[in-house]
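Reposting from the mailing list since nobody answered there.

I have sequence plus structure tokens for a pair of proteins and want to know whether others read the tokens the same way I do. The first protein:
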Amino acid sequence: MSIFSRIFDTIVSIFFSAAGFLIIVIMCSVASEIILRYFLNRPQMWVIEIASYAMLYITFLGAAAVLRKEKQVILDFIVIRLKPRAQLILNCITSSISTIVCFVLFWFGLRIFMQLVISGQVADSAIGIPRAAVIVIIPLGSLLLGIQSLRRTYNFLAKMKQHLLTEKEYQVNLTDEI
């Protein structure tokens, strides 16, 4: 495995762990909000806002790791009925489209992030978090997901090449037998 792959996989794993940590933070903050609001009559204004930002972060922090582990939701009721070669082709096409979409999302997310950094806009909320701090995860997570999707496309292409080589060897063996 190349050094780039090891570094990338480490970053993806760190982001995935951070997503898990944020899930725990949301769980604890919502539980404390329930106790404070309904038992002590002292609601906290920040809990819902932080939880909603954290859910955005969880999505983009964990997406590349989920794709790397092939644990994404797949509607394969049609695909499983196809021949292996057709499955590889279809997976390669969908993975390529996913790669393009991720890089487009990265590009536009980065542009919006830069505009927010320059303007210094702050969210209209109880906490007043800078909008750039909320949005930064979209281009970052999209970039990681795009790279992982590109790796996935490459793997499907390699499997297709191997499949084609295996088919050619099989055809050569058949002709030798005749």
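The second protein, same order (residues first, tokens after):
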Amino acid sequence: MCDDNGDGTLRAVAWTDICPWLRLFRCFRLAIGFGFPLLLAAVAILLTVTGWALFGWVFSGDPEIARQLGPYKGCPWLALTSVVPDELDELGLPAPPLGFGRDEPTPYADVGSPESIFRRSAEPFWGSFAQLSRPLWQIFSSDVTVTKLAYLALCGLWSLAIWAFFGGAIARRAAVELACEEHVGAGAMLRYACKRWSTYFSAPLLLVVGIAAIALGLALAGILLHWNLTAALAGLFLWPLMLLGGLAITYLLVWLMLGWPLMWGATSAEGQDSFDALSRSNQYLFQRPLHYLFYVVVAVVIGWLGWVVVSNFAGAVIALTHWAADWGADSSRWLADGSGGRQVDALLSDTAEVGIVGAFGSGLILFWCGCVKMLAVGFLYSYFWTASTCIYLLLRYDAEGKELDSVFLEEEEDEATYGLPPIGTDEAGAPVVEDDAAPPDDAAPPGESQSGGEGEPPTESEGNEPPSEGDERSDQT
């Protein structure tokens, strides 16, 4: 942990060995990686909310479901990009504009009931966890109907299917780089996630199936409450058993809601099946709950500070581009009184009177600005999966004492393999490496001896005798 120069003076201290949780600070650097991680996370969340919107359109006959998309004008990604500021006067510390752990008060905020599943907090770790878990949370509301239950179930399965691949790829990259400090290429992480997609998908789904099976049994028993006599009998004999069923649902639900991020870390670091991921998530969650809570708090604080940098950087890119373009778009800036400016903002506003071509150009400008914001939004999810994987490694170290640099590595399929070179003997009978040995396919035909002559093959006694000085050695093996 330290170096001693001989006189007892410490020269360096390995703080990550003393305080392993300091490794969480590396998550920001891994998650920010401008390029593939941000792009992968941005594509994943776009696919997620697009699927949710399509399901909402299918079930739009339910007024509560119809209000899910109403505040976002049919564009669910506005709920994501609205957390990124695009005005210079909005830049700065994200409190209160980008509040810590609270939903962003944007023009697209949902004022209806129930809360829209598209909304998210501006905090990377808890906000991502809450948004991806929200379909499951809302299933257990007291006013859920059959239509809304089907809608939320489809949204949950769609989200699980999307992040089983994209989240698995990001978590795999984080596991290898956090443990081995080796760079993981885009192809390697995508191949790993594709190969183990079923494991990522099925691990939390098994708990969902268990909860649904128990709930169905309780629902069937609830039919007895329709009649007074059977209700009295159910309260006398059946209700204690039903409470045990409720206890089982509560246990499985706590396991699922708090342990599902650990399942991605277990699959990414261990390379095992879904049952191993379930077992490890259960063990670490219930054996080290305070450790888990502490790591989550640290991850939330680090993620919030990282979001200050990322969101304001993206907002500055857009705002300064608008500012520079205004000098050419609005000639009134050159007047003596200094009036004018903000021509670009006026062009992009809904109240601007532009033709079809102007509206097309305005739409393209908004599209490219939205791409910049979506890359920033990608950090929210990239950081969540990276920090979740780091928390898994820390909990594994606390519960099992397994080193943090231990991670499953698989051989690349395109990696060339080489065997040992052929071994022969020299004139004195000592073993040597034959450099020009021919492959087995080119061996001498059965009618020829291996000494190069024709006739019968050498006998066993002759084969054991060392060659004489006058004999020529064959190049064939």
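Reply #1 (J.P.):
I read it the same way you do. Residues 89-114, 413-417, 442-477 have pLDDT under 50 and may be disordered.
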